[in-house]
Design a protein that fits this description.
Layout (H helix, E strand, L loop, with lengths): L2 H19 L8 H11 L4 H8 L3 H13 L3 E3 L11 E3 L1 H22 L4 H21 L4 H4 L2
Antiparallel strand pairs: 1-2
Helix pairs in contact: 3-4
Length: 146
């Protein structure tokens, strides 16, 4: 098995563990969308679908649920009256903060037996991996043209 295969298997196992740890306060599939809006938004729904590489109807359902829950709101676009950029509300930011704290605590517990040097090295390597993965991931054309 190649190193890349081992990394892929471990990342899938990690994703399953994180999802099973404790129920999230919102639909787990909505958390990446909420985080993206908070970190990089505002975005239109079509931009979100293209960036996440999912079908627009999937984003529409998720956005509708987030709007109903008061975690995201639609704003009028001053340059294009037909557009409705999506923005995370204060309640949405509180959910993201709580989720971040929950996961940080979970990861902290898992890393508690590691030496400070091993934890720092792991954090550095993981950061490099994520940066390289983002850099090498092909982007949809409409995202590149923005």
């Amino acid at each position: 098995m190649s190193d890349a295969d081992q990394v892929a298997r471990q990342l899938l196992a990690l994703a399953r563990l994180v999802k099973r740890a404790e129920p999230a306060p919102v639909e787990p599939m909505c958390l990446p969308l909420l985080a993206m809006l908070a970190e990089e938004g505002p975005f239109r729904a079509g931009e979100i679908a293209a960036t996440l590489g999912v079908h627009p109807s999937t984003v529409s359902r998720q956005v509708a649920g987030l709007v109903r829950a008061g975690l995201v709101e639609r704003r009028a676009d001053p340059e294009d009256g037909r557009a409705s950029p999506l923005v995370v509300t204060a309640a949405g930011r509180r959910i993201l903060d709580a989720e971040h704290q929950r996961r940080a605590a979970q990861f902290g517990t898992a890393l508690a037996g590691w030496s400070p040097e091993a934890r720092a090295r792991f954090a550095d390597l993981l950061g490099c991996f994520v940066s390289d993965l983002q850099r090498t991931r092909p982007l949809p054309l409409d995202v590149i043209e923005r």
